[in-house]
Design goal:
Elements (H helix, E strand, L loop, with lengths): L6 H17 L2 E6 L2 H5 L2 H14 L18 E6 L11 E4 L3 E3 L7 H11 L8 E3 L2 E3 L6 H4 L17 H6 L4 H9 L2 H11 L11 H9 L7 E6 L8 H8 L1 H15 L3 E7 L3 H17 L14 E7 L8 H8 L23 E5 H13 L1 H5 L9 E8 L5 E6 L4 H8 L9 E6 L5 E4 L9 H6 L8 E6 L4 H15 L5 H18 L5 H17 L3 H4 L3 H9 L1 H10 L13 E3 L9 H5 L5 E2 L7 E2 L9 H5 L5 E3 L2
Parallel strand pairs: 1-2, 7-8, 7-10, 8-9, 11-15
Antiparallel strand pairs: 1-3, 3-4, 5-6, 11-12, 13-14, 13-15, 16-19, 17-18
Length: 628
C-alpha cells in the first residue's frame, strides 16, 4: 500500500478513489452495523457478493434519467444506516434505492430484477401512511434529520480507508498541518463553541487550550468510547461505520495540543467497533497517516486501543484513565483535573467519539458554519438513539434545539400502536424524565438542565401510557447501584438504600414516608457524591418523583399499579358473566389458586395467587382480567 508522504499525494489518492466510486456501474451497500448483522445482513452480503462474482459482466439498468459508470459492480459493507427498526437495510446506488427488512432469500430477486432490469421491488420499500418511499432521502425518518456526523454512515465502505479519503477524509487534518498553527486550531474550535457530546457539555476548545498551556510537554489524547448508558449506541455506530472521522478528529486535537500518543477506550462488549477501529488504525499506519513524520512533516502520532471491561463508572474521566493505566477504574478527587494530570499523570485531552467526529467538519467548513446550526450556546447537531415505544426506532441526528415533538412524531413516526405518549427518559441513568408539557422544549444542554434533565450521551427512551414510572425509576436505580464503584459512601450506600425503598414500593410494601425518604436520599447523594456519575445517579428518581408523584402515592397508599407492570400489585379476577366453567384456567394454575365446578364460574383465591398470568393466557373467553 502506497505511503502518503505529502498533501499532494493525499489529494491525488482522493481523486482516484472518488473516480473509482463514480465509475462504478452499481454499488450495493449492505448495512453491516451490529443490529443488521444480528438480523442476518452478513448472509445477505455473502449472497450478493456471490451473485456479483457469478455475473461480472451484467448490464446495469436504472432508466435513462440515472447515469452510471462502466466500472465494476461493487458489493460493500457499510456502517449503520440508522433506521434500525427496518433492518437489515440495503442501499443501491446510483439509483438511491433503499430496501428494508431484506432477507437472504430476497437477494436473487434484487439482483436480477432491480440491478439487471431496473425494477423496483415494492414489498421491500418502506411504507408509511399509505405512501411508498423508493429513496432513502425521501423517507420522513431521514428527511427530517441533519446528518453531519453520521453523513458517511451507510454511504461508504466502513472497512476501506480509500472510501473515507474519497469523500474528503483527512483533508481537514492536512489543512491544519500545512496551513494553521496549533493555536489557530484551538481558536477555531473555541469560536465554534463545540461542546462535549459525552454528556457534560463542557466547551471543547477551552479544554484543549488548558492542555496546550501546561508546562509538561508529554501530553495525551484520549477518546471515550465506553458508552455505558442502556439503550445508547451513537458512539458505537460511528466507530463501526465511520471510524476514520473520529481518528481524524483525534489527529487534529493532537496537533493542536502537541500530543504524540493517543488512546481509544472502548468497552469490550463492542467487538465489531473494536475490529473496525483496529483495521482503520492499521490502514492509516500503512498509508502513513498515523505514526512517524505524517505527510512528510515533523508531526508524529501513535494511536492505541484499550478495551474496557464494561464498568459504567469508567465513562467518568479519571476512572477511565485509571483503567487504561491498568488500575481499578475508580474516580479520584479533583483537582487536579484531567487537563492538568490525566493519563499517566500527564495533561490529557479527553473527549468522546461524537465530539472528535465533529472536529474535521468544523476545520473544513469553519466555526461560523458550525455556529449557524442550532442555538447559540449549544450549536451543531446531536446524535440520539431513539428507542422504546416509538414506531421508527434507530439512530438519528438533529440540530441542537430540535423539539421532542419533532423527534418523536416527525422522525419517530409517533407512538407504537397509536398509544398515548407518557414520557421520555433522556440521558439514561444520569438523566431524567420529560412529559407531555415538555414536548416542545428545546433539546439542548441549557434548556434541559432547567428541566432537571440532561442530554447525557444521547439515549432517548420513549414510553407510552402503559409504562409504570415507579418501575422505570427502580430499573435505572438498580443499574446505577450495580455499577457503583463503591469508592464514596453517598453513592455506594445511598443508591443501595434508594433501591431497597423502590423495591419495597413495587412489591406493594411501601409506605407514605418512603417517598420523603427517597427525596431526602436523592438530594444527599446529588450534593455529596464524589464523581459526576454519582451526583447524577438519583436524577431518574428525582424527576419521576416530581412529575409522577400521584403514581408513587397510588403504589404506596392504594397498593395499585395502573399499568399492571408491578407483578406484586396485580389482582386477577374472573368475570362470572364471561366464564364458561371449562376449568382450563384451573388446570394451568401452577399453585392451585383457582377452584370451581365445571360449567359454573370459577374463582381465584387471591391469597394463593402468585400473579403469574398463566390463567389469563389460557382462557379462551377473555374472562380473566387484572382488577383496576
Amino acid at each position: 500500500m502506497e505511503k502518503i508522504t505529502s498533501r499532494e499525494i493525499l489529494h491525488q489518492i482522493r481523486e482516484e478513489a472518488a473516480k473509482k466510486i463514480s465509475d462504478s456501474r452499481c454499488r450495493i451497500l449492505i448495512c453491516a452495523g451490529t443490529g443488521c448483522l444480528a438480523g442476518g445482513s452478513g448472509e445477505i452480503y455473502r449472497r450478493m457478493s456471490e451473485l456479483a462474482e457469478e455475473n461480472p459482466d451484467i448490464d446495469v439498468e436504472f432508466g435513462p434519467e440515472i447515469a452510471h459508470g462502466s466500472g465494476p459492480l461493487e458489493v460493500k459493507k457499510s456502517g449503520c444506516h440508522g433506521f434500525c427498526e427496518m433492518g437489515p437495510l440495503m442501499r443501491i446506488e446510483p439509483a438511491g434505492i433503499l430496501y428494508t427488512k431484506v432477507k437472504p432469500e430476497d437477494c436473487d430477486e434484487i439482483f436480477h430484477r432491480t440491478i439487471e432490469k431496473g425494477d423496483v421491488i415494492r414489498h421491500l420499500l418502506f411504507k408509511q401512511d399509505g405512501l411508498e418511499y423508493k429513496k432513502q432521502e425521501e423517507i420522513p425518518f431521514y428527511k427530517k434529520q441533519t446528518r453531519n456526523v453520521l453523513k458517511n454512515c451507510g454511504h461508504i465502505d466502513a472497512e476501506h480507508i480509500e472510501e473515507y479519503i474519497a469523500v474528503g477524509g483527512y483533508q481537514s487534518f492536512a489543512k491544519v498541518l500545512f496551513e494553521q498553527t496549533p493555536n489557530d486550531v484551538i481558536e477555531t474550535i473555541l469560536e465554534s463553541n463545540l461542546r462535549g457530546r459525552g454528556g457534560g457539555g463542557f466547551q471543547t476548545g477551552y479544554k484543549w487550550k488548558q492542555v496546550a498551556r501546561q508546562q509538561e510537554k508529554i501530553r495525551y489524547i484520549v477518546c471515550n468510547g465506553d458508552e455505558g448508558d442502556p439503550g445508547a449506541f451513537m458512539d458505537r455506530s460511528i466507530m463501526e461505520g465511520d471510524p476514520h472521522k473520529m481518528i481524524e478528529g483525534m489527529l487534529i486535537a493532537a496537533y493542536a495540543v502537541g500530543a504524540q500518543e493517543g488512546y481509544i477506550y472502548v468497552r469490550a462488549e463492542y467487538p465489531l467497533a473494536i475490529s473496525r477501529l483496529r483495521l482503520a488504525i492499521s490502514q492509516a499506519e500503512d498509508r502513513g497517516l498515523l505514526g512517524e513524520h505524517i505527510l512528510g512533516t515533523d508531526f508524529s502520532f501513535h494511536l492505541h486501543i484499550n478495551r474496557g471491561a464494561g464498568a459504567f463508572v469508567c465513562g467518568e474521566g479519571s476512572a477511565l484513565t485509571a483503567s487504561i493505566e491498568g488500575k481499578r477504574g475508580m474516580p479520584r478527587v479533583k483537582p487536579p483535573r484531567t487537563v492538568e494530570q490525566g493519563l499517566f499523570a500527564k495533561p490529557t485531552v479527553l473527549n468522546n467519539v461524537e465530539t472528535f467526529a465533529n472536529v474535521p467538519m468544523i476545520i473544513e467548513k469553519g466555526a461560523k458554519w458550525y455556529r449557524s446550526i442550532g442555538p447559540e450556546n449549544s450549536p451543531g447537531t446531536k446524535a440520539f438513539a431513539l428507542t422504546g415505544s416509538v414506531k421508527n426506532t434507530g439512530l438519528i441526528e438533529v440540530p441542537m434545539g430540535t423539539s421532542l415533538r419533532e423527534v418523536i412524531y416527525d422522525i419517530g413516526g409517533g407512538i407504537k400502536g397509536d398509544a398515548k405518549f407518557k414520557a421520555v427518559q433522556i440521558g439514561g441513568p444520569s438523566g431524567g424524565c420529560l412529559i407531555t408539557p415538555h414536548l416542545d422544549v428545546s433539546l439542548d444542554f441549557d434548556s434541559l438542565k432547567k428541566m432537571g434533565a440532561m442530554i447525557g450521551s444521547g439515549g432517548l427512551v420513549v414510553m407510552d401510557d402503559k409504562t409504570c414510572m415507579v418501575e422505570v425509576a427502580r430499573f435505572f436505580m438498580n443499574f446505577t447501584q450495580n455499577e457503583s464503584c463503591g469508592k464514596c459512601v453517598p453513592c455506594r450506600e445511598g443508591t443501595k438504600r434508594m433501591l431497597e425503598i423502590l423495591e419495597r414500593i413495587v412489591a406493594g410494601k411501601g409506605a407514605r414516608e418512603d417517598l420523603d425518604l427517597l427525596d431526602e436520599l436523592a438530594s444527599t447523594i446529588t450534593d455529596t457524591a464524589l464523581c459526576g456519575l454519582g451526583k447524577s445517579a438519583a436524577l431518574p428518581v428525582m424527576s419521576t418523583l416530581k412529575v409522577f408523584h400521584d403514581e408513587y402515592v397510588e403504589h404506596v397508599v392504594e397498593k395499585k399499579c395502573a399499568s399492571h407492570t408491578c407483578t406484586a400489585l396485580r389482582k386477577f379476577i374472573i368475570s362470572p358473566e364471561r366464564c364458561k366453567g371449562c376449568s382450563k384456567c384451573a388446570r394451568n394454575c401452577p399453585v392451585g389458586a383457582i377452584s370451581g365446578k365445571i360449567k359454573e364460574p370459577f374463582t381465584i383465591d387471591t391469597e394463593k395467587c402468585i400473579k403469574c398470568g398463566a390463567c389469563a393466557s389460557a382462557c379462551a373467553f377473555g374472562a380473566i382480567h387484572i382488577e383496576g
